[in-house]
Amino acid sequence: MPENKHPENKHIAFFNYPAHGHLNPALPVVAELVRRGHRVTYAAPRQYAGAVADAGAAVLTYASTTPENWEDVAIPEKPTGDDAANAMLAQVLEGFAPLSAAEERLTGDVPDLIVFDQYAHHTGRLLARKWSLPSVQTCTTFAANAEYSPYARLAELSDVQLDFTHPSFAELGKVFRATLDEHGFADLSVEEFSAGGEDLSVVFLPKSFQLGAETFGDGFVFTGPSLGNGRRAGDGDWPPPAGDRPLLLITMGSHGYENRAEFYRQCVRAFGDVDWTVVMAVGTQVKPAELGPLPSNFDVVPWVPQLEVLRRADALLAHAGMGSTMEALYFGVPPVVVPRLGEQQLIGERLVELGLGRMVMPADADAETLRAAVLGLAGDSAAKERVAKVRDEIRAAGGTSAAADAIEAVAKSR
């Protein structure tokens, strides 16, 4: 076991879900903990190993069950009961995927603290129980507690009928039960295991944006988005456009969605003749040639260093991912969102409820509607004032540094 020459410095193990929306806020926290002298071991599949190592962590590699490139998977516009059951099984399989590699690596080097993602809590929560370690949960989206769960609203939004006799649910139960039994928790129900027990939850939102915020007490720390130094592994250079025209960033994030090329074509029609600069990040699966003749005010690229563009942007048109939404608010940019998943619709509803942005449902996302939403919000001075207040709240919450403070405090408490 490596010797800890400074007892105040701790060994912290991180377990996260392998997707950019989960890694982006976590890795700056890892870098900050390492800067403070702590040692971090971070479980990650091969495709994210470089970014994890760049943050200063020791990489614990494992065989992930998730796609190597999320763009390659087109999320359906109208999910079925099959899709939902298969997705729930996939979440559990991925949650436990690092377990054997983590036990092999960490049994002789047991960490002082385990940090795990809300969505991929399985391995971290099990090892924290098994080794009687303190633990911290990180939440990249709305948190839940014993009194309030935003996911009840998700059930209301969905018209998908879950069939609990589906083979994927049967397999999910078997995997969960067998794993708990194998690790000495035969008397622990799946429901009890899933209910929590962590010492603290770190939520990468300002508290005002959290649904049911009044029900969350001292066990939850709302830090706002964790952006670190504003640069991410793989970010290239982005030369800001010349001139002082307003700038609109259009992005649908790092996941693939059905019919995304048609959405981008509608954007070209919507904003091709406005006196704005439009930066549209379309990923690698959609080619600019598919979008028809591109107007001179459009810059269509696979990816952009999003934080750099938002620093200069006046408007955002995006998919209502929590990461992009929080990043826009951090820079005081009012977002228009076109949600493609139930959770994204919750985020869109919250933006509208707080008067911070506008939401267009995918079925309504034609050129005329998108143009009216973006230009209407850009001209809404009251919305801009509300966004400015949330921007100030977010920056006061502390972001990366506050999250590191909270995790460090739990690590040093035992």
TrEMBL record:
Domain (Erythromycin biosynthesis protein CIII-like C-terminal): residue spans on this chain: 268-397
Write one Pfam family the protein is assigned to: EryCIII-like_C
What range does the record give for the signal peptide? none
For this protein, the record's CDD domains field holds: GT1_Gtf-like
Domain of life from the UniProt record: Bacteria
Keywords assigned by UniProt, alphabetized = Transferase
Keyword Transferase included in the entry's annotation: yes
Similarity annotation: Belongs to the UDP-glycosyltransferase family.
Q: What is this protein called?
A: UDP-glucosyltransferase YjiC
Organism (species) = Amycolatopsis bullii
